[in-house]
Amino acid sequence: MVGTVRDKVATLKKQGKPVGEVIALKPSAAFDRKWGGGIGPDAFVDLSTPASEGFWHKS
Description:
The protein is mostly helical. It has one domain. Helix content is 63%, strand content 0%.
C-alpha cells in the first residue's frame, strides 16, 4: 500500500504537478476505505512527500 501510493505520488511529481494538485487527485483512493481512518488520506499523501513542497523542487 505505502509503496503503491509512493509510486503514484512520484509519477505525478515527475509530471510537474504541485503537491496540492497531487493531494486533490487522491493517489491513495484505492486504500482509503480500509486504511484511511488514521491521519486521513490527504495528510498521508502530504507526509509521503519528503519535505512536502521541497520534494517537488528536487529531481
